[in-house]
Write a structure and sequence with these properties.
single chain, alpha/beta, 16 helices, globular
Length: 494
């Protein structure tokens, strides 16, 4: 369908966690439903949750989710710059899908020639994407009013100016102070930047929407910018989140008639979206914990991915979780490791080149006779294995067996991957392995006699499609989409 081009749109925030990512996913789905060919874009993302693109490169998970909402494959041009925090107050810098080194916050935000090179790279990525999709749904980062970082900002208003985007300012009313944060955010912009702000969305409203009708009029009068909508807080629509803040709130009370699965809550946990499908399997009660008493309640313990394997392994020994996991294995419970968790299950983790820090060797949990050596080369690729199962790898380090072991998976290209001591002790580098129902069935098979009933397979793809459509319906109901279209079609002089 040949649709009239729309201006790029940027969802900018009055602060972090105001809901920009989820609203961007909603707009990607709405534009797709309306016959457009949208794509997401975030120049710079800081997150531990990442995803491998079809061509084996790395981007932030949020942009992969938004691309899925748009109905397209993800690409590094959607998130050309990714910062992955390390344990030692630095971040790994991933540019166009490949790591280029580590940097501290002070050095990263200084005005240098390298900084301008990054600016050229992210602008070039946007330009390429803008040639292929219509419209581009852009996302800012944090607050747009951090004026002390204005000259080095790559992702907010300078990016909107480059893209000639219509900016929609998102404010979170749930945290309070929404009038001051919206008005202040606009007032602190330069005149040419202020002209780009074409609308306001108030997000996460609780209660009767009629109570904010006067508030919307007051905001419009104060700011000279229309309020396009007030979006109610929701808890019944599931969209993958970028941050792990609420993981520890998952219930830790064991449930009878279900398999109790404990995911070890690591300090540097990454790719916790690995457990989204398992959490929704009606046979399973899943919780996150680093408490030794809670681990004793579990039938299955999963060690998740980590951005800092050695540091998290050290912490497991310090807080007693290592001993609890080893004891659970002795008692016949299942222990499974994914990526960094898989590395921890071995005899040792070696870091001769100090990729992660100053520790050259850390003893593992000794659950699998394997040895891992960290190296500077990162593996990122999508993989297929078993009977039409899929996942992706994002890891640094090479793992080898120190004695005869059974591989866990056979890849479609003939390689083997992961290792297992038996059906209750296994490790893998494949993120998303638990998105595959056959593998979940295999993991739960030893516990069939304790289940109340067999459940129907959970279709995660159909579930996610339903959630994107429900999210789009929710935003359509509370945001003036027709007015948004008019803004994105208005003639411009610039």
């Amino acid at each position: 369908m040949n649709m009239k081009p729309l201006h790029p749109i940027m969802l900018a925030g009055t602060g972090s966690d105001v809901g920009k990512s989820v609203l961007a996913a909603a707009l990607c789905r709405i534009f797709k439903q309306d016959g457009y060919h949208p794509a997401p874009f975030k120049a710079q993302n800081m997150a531990l949750n990442s995803f491998a693109t079809p061509d084996g490169l790395e981007i932030g998970r949020a942009q992969a989710v938004q691309a899925e909402a748009a109905g397209i494959d993800c690409h590094t041009d959607m998130n050309p710059l990714l910062l992955k925090p390390n344990s030692n107050h630095t971040s790994q810098v991933v540019l166009n899908g490949r790591p280029i080194g580590n940097t501290g916050a002070y050095d990263y935000f200084r005005k240098t020639e390298g900084r301008e090179q990054l600016r050229r790279e992210v602008c070039a990525a946007f330009d390429r994407l803008n040639q292929r999709y219509n419209p581009i749904v852009m996302e800012g980062a944090g607050s747009i009013s951090e004026i002390n970082l204005r000259d080095t900002d790559l992702v907010n208003m300078p990016m909107a100016m480059h893209a000639k985007a219509d900016v929609i300012l998102v404010g979170d009313i749930d945290r309070g102070g929404v009038f001051a944060s919206v008005y202040g955010s606009i007032l602190l912009q330069r005149p040419e930047e202020r002209k780009r702000i074409k609308g306001i969305i108030i997000n996460k409203f609780r209660g009767d929407l009629r109570l904010f009708e006067e508030g919307s009029r007051m905001l419009e009068q104060l700011c000279g910018v229309p309020v396009l909508g007030v979006v109610p807080y929701f808890t019944d629509i599931y969209i993958e989140e970028e941050d792990s803040v609420d993981l520890a709130m998952k219930s830790m009370q064991a449930e009878h008639g279900k398999v109790n699965v404990a995911v070890v809550l690591l300090r540097h946990i990454s790719n916790y979206t690995d457990f989204n499908v398992l959490e929704r399997d009606p046979r399973v009660h899943l919780f996150y914990t680093n408490n030794t008493d809670d681990l004793k309640k579990a039938d299955i313990i999963i060690l998740p991915g980590s951005k800092s394997t050695i540091d998290d392994l050290y912490e497991l020994r310090r807080n007693g979780c290592a001993q609890a996991i080893i004891q659970a294995r002795r008692e016949g419970k299942t222990v499974m490791g994914i990526c960094g968790g898989y590395q921890m299950m071995g005899d040792e983790v070696l870091d001769p080149h100090h990729v992660e820090g100053n520790i050259s060797r850390m003893p593992g949990l000794g659950l699998l006779p394997i040895s891992t050596t960290m190296n500077g080369e990162k593996v990122t690729r999508q993989v297929s294995f078993g009977n039409r199962m899929h996942g992706y790898e994002i890891h640094m380090g090479q793992t080898v067996a120190t004695q005869q072991l059974t591989p866990l998976n056979t890849m479609d290209d003939g390689r083997t991957e992961g290792f297992m001591a038996d059906e209750r002790c296994m490790g893998t580098y494949i993120h998303g392995i638990l998105d595959n129902q056959p593998f979940i069935d295999r993991l739960l098979a030893p516990y069939a006699d304790m289940l109340n009933e067999r459940s129907k397979p959970f279709d995660y793809h159909a579930f996610k499609e339903e959630q994107y459509n429900r999210l789009a319906d929710h935003v359509r109901q509370h945001v003036d989409i027709e007015r948004l279209y008019r803004i994105m079609k208005e003639d411009k002089n610039d």
